[in-house]
Amino acid sequence: MNVGDIAPDFTLNNQDGQAVSLSALLRAGPVVLFFYPAAMTKGCTKEACNFRDLGAEFTALHAQRIGVSMDTVERQKQFADGSTLDYPLLADTDGAVARSYGVKRSLDFLKVRRTTFVIGQDGKLLDVIAHEMNMNVHADRALSALRV
Fold first, then answer.
1. Does the annotation mark 44 as catalytic?
2. pTM above 0.85?
3. Contact (Cβ atoms closer than 8 angstroms) between residue 38 and residue 44
4. How far apart (Å, rounded) are the C-alpha atoms in residues 122 and 71?
């Protein structure tokens, strides 16, 4: 997926078991959709908490933060509660959404490539951030893309 492409729509369950669709989210404003390999791992926790800590800045830009991994709804709930995350975590248990965004790995161990998609309210990608080692770059660059 590249900047300017239309983000594929999807519906997944959040950590509370409620169905969430991208099209519904976009009606409220831009969406920052970040894929992470596994809930409650060191790097993913650091990334998720950075998105949490910058929440006021995303809110000021009317942007919604949404995390996605192939973990179960129950594991997403445990992760959200344990890290006091104030945004939805979606369970892409079969990897179909990760595949549609081109971030699904062929190996089951890491499952997805750590990638963030900044999606404008019109559904077009404003930025694609792919960095495996710097956990803070995702939220920081997403904010920069939204400010343009």
1. yes
2. yes
3. yes
4. 29
At residue 15, the 3 state secondary structure works out as coil
- Which residue's structure tokens are 């908490």? 49
Q: What is the pLDDT of residue 108?
A: 66
Q: Single out the catalytic residue among 22, 44, 103, 129.
A: 44
Give the distance from CA 117 to its chain's centroid.
7
Q: For residue 84, how many other CB atoms are within 10 A of its CB? A: 8
Inter-residue contact 7 to 125 (CB < 8 Å): yes
Over residues 68-96, the pLDDT tens digits come to 999 999 999 999 999 999 999 999 999 99
Q: Give the C-alpha separation, 22 to 27, whole Å.
A: 9
Through-space distance between the first and last CA atoms of the chain, rounded to whole angstroms: 20
Number of residues that this document lists for the chain: 148
Report whether 34 contacts 47 (CB < 8 A). Answer: yes
DSSP characters over 34-85: EE-S-TTSHHHHHHHHHHHHTHHHHHHTT-EEEEEESS-HHHHHHHHHHTT-
Q: In whole angstroms, what is the distance from residue 132 CA to residue 12 CA?
A: 24
